[in-house]
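Q: What structure does this chain adopt?
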Amino acid sequence: MQKSILKQLKTDKRILKGFSRGFKIAPRGSERHIMKAYKLNLEKTIKTYHLIDSKIELNNCYSNVFRVAQATENKDFNFCYGYIEQRLTNTKILFRHCFLKDNNTNKIIDVTALLWRDFEKDYNDYNYYIFKEFNRNHYLLELLNDEEETGVLNNLYKQEAKLLNTLLEEGKKLNPIDLKSLIDVVYEGDTMRGFEDFNKYNKILIEE
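A:
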């Protein structure tokens, strides 16, 4: 069973595979809310990183978070699916991401980020947004129940849609790779038509 989970979590692309439903493009007009942004706790991130430092992989956040769950039974940690906003040159961009939240400080623990180039210079500017968080037991149970290997995110598309809707209304930008993956799902591979609609409706996404 453990080997099956590790295989499932081997790459970000693997765990995101299997979205059978997605989001529709919709015009403006819904009530707007400001989404809470969380900040990184550097000290806790480094301490947690050293629990499994030899197993941390660059750009493999889902697997890295799972390994943290194996290495600690800290009940103050929640295991989170969401987005990180990072600055690329002069623009801030959203990326799908997986990380932990320390419930004592309400700050983020991100072991994957320590491997990124320019982390030390940039981490204070990171903004984290959460569309689903689990305690450790619930998180591991979700993975164990993923018998069809569609990925836990397959069941979270409504929460993700709600988060993205709010962030995009705030004027935030989603990176092209994650954007294309969503459009491919919604339009069943008709990427050109998907981008035309996305631009037409001011890049606002809502759940189906």
